[in-house]
Design a protein that fits this description.
heterodimer, A: alpha/beta, 3-stranded mixed β-sheet, 12 strands, about 20% strand, globular, B: alpha/beta, 8-stranded mixed β-sheet, 11 strands
């Protein structure tokens, strides 16, 4: 079923009468986030505070397989409610996966056959960065190299944090922009795979091994992972979560030029948590430094590289087992800015594909997305239908996309010593 | 020494000098890549004094024989020349001229990694009497790779090796590829070598005979080389046509394999263009060829326009056309082809090699026991049961190896076997209500 129908159905199931006005509480209150193992379900959930429901991530032997929402009362979820929600929320695919693990037809990824350089993008959230680094150094040692790309304003905070973690190297790129920083990481990396992680996302225990296991297929050039929210307390956080494509979020998917048009590469995942094969980048070229946070285009760099990878016949794998946890930004203004930035990035990426790579299909595809998806969604937002995003978010994305081509032109024109935008601009935050 | 088939009657000659491996390379007009291959063979980790390389020049016009004669090699290098008689004859001639007990067949466009020969030798030592396939990494020139044909070729090629390397892969006749292959010389001679009448699919045909005789196949990814394919797009007509012819020849020699051939796949809804082209392949092939060439030019235009989906559809259509063209040519017409597919030999399709009944395998006692039962009996197929209830089957497949214990686990994870197994386990009380299976799979280490 289409994404839209699914969202409406989920919204009706939740009891949403109408799309809330911006800033209004969603689900009647905050949502707590929990993480359980299918074969060892806890007898209910405790200590959920003021939450009215819980978002529960269900795993099988460490690999995430499904997520379910359960209503909570007085800060707890009863064992029966939890078991029932899990039973209803598990699809046949989950049970097949469970059986495959039992008969050992499928094995969880062990020590990886190749080594990775982990590049952490450190911006301006030192507390989150600390959690991220703590989790990274706890990962099993498979010979990985840890690198922090310091693109923050407050260079000292990051430097001190890195100093407290031996074995982590810090790099402060001179050129502005996140794409330049990523290209620098790819150049400096010593190993075959470069794994990028936003500094405000903490990796799960199986994150690196899950990423690396997918590179056993020689056709795979890039692996993207899932980013789960640590909390869903404010309406902005809840909507940030909902604006992600929800359908089949916990199903591993292989993207190929045969089934995913290169210009729809954004379907393959988000730019906060992904890994690249270095020689694939050597083949198709580096990140476009006129795109991405820190430039007038504010985003789109990663998606545009994926477009080039798909066009060259490479594969991109989305693997939810490569999981990272993030605390989304709390205020509505930040969310709107993020949505706007994502729109600008998308428009700019398409402009680059059209202008530089000759992908004339960018025009019909952009119009197709607009006419078939965004405009109907805007209409539903205006009518306050359940499941439709608040109007200002829908408009922000469209405005951003329209501004994309001009932003790319500006970014290209200003190449060379580029006037760096103010560093504390939250516009650099990527959505996913 | 010219194209004589390997003599199956007498023992092959053994040269003195302790050479243990002979690399046989048939070649036609690929002097540069052959040079790179010989250079790479000079850098093998395998002791070069135990290595012999036999190059069979099959009707070369670009000076390959002169290059080989003038090549200074740190190993024994021999040249066999023959008029253009085809790759199968060339390989057989090379095998006959070779003196070592182990043969490694390498194509002239496969440039071996330094460990290739050693890996083949080690794999053969581990499992004597088996046929070992190596990994030929596809290397398409970068300019071509972005284009549709290069990317498609690369994907298909990698996919073949990935399936071969998967745990519990059931080897079939198609898995034998003569581009990077090792086989004991005595075994090759006893099997009679490659069928010299076949241009394409000769390796699959040898694979069928070997599997029928019970020879084990193995895949060794460490025996790797780089497969430098020039330009996949340009070769589409010739390659597919040869495949069509080869499939008909294969089906004539091994009637029981007919259901496994692409010819036997009858699609219900063929798009009109493809249907029209296919009809032309039978009734008016010359006209069909002209139409196909025009469409081929349109295909190139689509590629430049980056109209990917249309390109793929047209590429598939043209591939099918050329395939059917070759098949019709070899079979001699539509009626003959229909007879071939549905006619009198259909009864033969039931036999495969030794025939035999499927084995009933009981899973309740544990997977290790079930796997051991398969290893002991090596049946053509198996019926899987749990506590007496049927949960699935591994069907007998013509052209595939007999079942081993390693084939069991992947078979259990598929649909609908997985469901039925789960249901049977629940009914038999093996799972507790919260989904935990208590008595199942209390195994030790999983088998490979």
């Amino acid at each position: 079923m289409s994404e839209r129908t699914l969202q409406e159905r989920q919204a009706r199931a939740r009891g949403d009468r109408a799309a809330p006005a911006r800033g209004a509480p969603v689900n009647g209150g905050p949502t707590a986030v929990a993480d359980v193992e299918l074969e060892q379900l806890p007898p209910g959930l405790e200590g959920l505070g003021a939450a009215t429901q819980a978002l529960v991530l269900v795993r099988i032997r460490g690999a995430p397989v499904t997520e379910v929402r359960v209503p909570a009362e007085d800060g707890r979820v009863s064992a029966q409610a939890l078991a029932q929600a899990v039973a209803e929320g598990t699809t046949p695919a989950v049970w097949r996966r469970w059986l495959a693990e039992r008969v050992e037809a499928v094995r969880p990824p062990g020590r990886a056959a190749r080594r990775a350089t982990v590049a952490v993008i450190a911006r301006d959230r030192p507390d989150e960065l600390r959690h991220c680094l703590d989790a990274l150094v706890r990962l099993p040692d498979d010979g990985q190299e840890l690198l922090v790309l310091d693109v923050s304003n407050s260079g000292d905070a990051v430097r001190e944090l890195v100093a407290r973690h031996p074995g982590v190297r810090r790099v402060r790129p001179a050129e502005p922009g996140l794409s330049a920083a990523r290209n620098r990481a790819v150049r400096e990396a010593r190993h075959e795979v470069v794994a990028f992680l936003d500094g405000d996302a903490a990796p799960d225990a199986g994150w690196l091994r899950a990423l690396l296991a997918n590179f056993d297929d020689p056709l795979v050039a890039c692996v993207t992972g899932l980013v789960m929210p640590l909390e869903l307390e404010t309406p902005a956080q809840e909507w940030a979560e909902r604006l992600q494509p929800q359908a089949r979020r916990l199903v591993r998917r292989v993207h190929d030029a045969a089934d995913t048009h290169p210009l729809r590469a954004a379907r393959a995942g988000g730019g906060a948590n992904f890994a690249l094969r270095r020689d694939a980048v050597a083949r198709v070229g580096p990140f476009d430094e006129a795109l991405g946070p820190g430039t007038p285009t504010r985003g789109g760099a990663v998606t545009e590289l994926w477009t080039r990878l798909l066009a060259a016949g490479e594969r991109i794998v989305y693997d939810p087992a490569a999981l990272a946890w993030r605390r989304p930004r709390r205020t509505w203004e930040e969310l709107r800015q993020t949505v706007y930035d994502r729109g600008v990035g998308a428009g700019a990426a398409w402009s680059r594909s059209l202008a530089v790579d000759g992908e004339w299909a960018a025009i019909p595809i952009a119009f197709g997305v607009l006419v078939r998806d965004r405009l109907p969604r805007l209409y539903r937002s205006m009518l306050r239908r359940p499941g439709a995003p608040p109007l200002d978010l829908a408009l922000a994305e469209l405005r951003g996309c329209a501004a994309g081509p001009w932003a790319y032109w500006e970014a290209r024109r200003g190449s060379g010593p580029r006037a760096a935008p103010p560093r504390d601009d939250p516009s650099r935050e990527s959505m996913s | 020494m010219t194209g004589a088939a390997a003599d199956a009657a007498g023992p092959p000659r053994r040269r003195a000098g302790g050479r243990t491996v002979s690399v046989v390379i048939p070649t036609r007009d690929r002097r540069e890549t052959l040079g790179a291959t010989l250079d790479a063979l000079s850098e093998q980790r395998f002791p070069l004094d135990r290595l012999e390389v036999v190059v069979v020049a099959d009707g070369c016009t670009d000076g390959t024989p002169a290059m080989v004669r003038g090549y200074r090699a740190p190993f024994a290098l021999r040249l066999v020349e023959q008029p253009a008689l085809g790759a199968a004859r060339a390989r057989n001639a090379g095998a006959a001229a070779a003196g070592a007990p182990l043969l490694v067949f390498l194509d002239d466009d496969v440039v071996p990694d330094p460990g290739l020969v050693a890996a083949h030798a080690a794999a053969q030592a581990r499992a004597p009497g088996c046929v070992v396939m190596g990994y030929s990494r596809p290397a398409v020139p970068v300019a071509v790779a972005g284009g549709g044909a290069g990317a498609l070729w690369r994907q298909r090629w990698e996919e073949r090796f990935r399936t071969m390397g998967a745990t519990g892969h059931r080897f079939a006749f198609r898995d034998l590829r003569s581009g990077n292959l090792s086989i004991a010389a005595a075994l090759f001679a006893a099997a009679g070598g490659f069928d010299e009448e076949m241009e394409c699919r000769a390796d699959g045909e040898l694979g069928a005979r070997l599997l029928e005789a019970g020879v084990a196949f193995a895949y060794e990814p460490a025996a790797a080389g780089e497969h430098r394919h020039p330009a996949p797009a340009a070769l589409l007509p010739r390659q597919r046509r040869a495949e069509g012819r080869g499939d008909v020849q294969l089906g004539l020699r091994h009637p029981s394999l007919r259901p496994e051939l692409r010819l036997a796949r009858v699609e219900a809804d063929v798009p009109p263009l493809e249907g029209a082209l296919r009809a032309l392949a039978f009734t008016a092939p010359r006209l069909g060829d002209v139409a196909a060439r025009v469409l081929g030019a349109w295909l190139n235009a689509l590629e430049r326009l980056r109209a990917r989906r249309r390109w793929r559809r047209l590429h598939a259509t043209l591939g099918h056309y050329w395939y059917w063209r070759g098949a019709a040519e070899q079979a001699g017409g539509r009626r003959a082809l229909a007879d071939f597919l549905h006619g009198g030999d259909a009864a033969v399709a039931g036999e495969w090699g030794w025939g035999g009944e499927p084995l009933d395998v009981e899973l309740e006692a544990g997977l290790a026991d079930a796997a051991r039962a398969l290893d002991a009996a090596r049946p053509v197929g198996a019926r899987l049961r749990y506590a007496g209830q049927a949960v699935g089957e591994i069907p007998a497949r013509p052209g595939a190896e007999r079942l081993r214990g390693a084939h069991l686990r992947p078979a259990l994870a598929g649909d609908p076997t997985a469901w039925r197994l789960l249901l049977a386990m629940t009914l038999a009380g093996a799972s507790s209500p919260d989904g935990r299976a208590t008595s199942f799979a209390a195994d030790g280490a999983p088998d490979a």
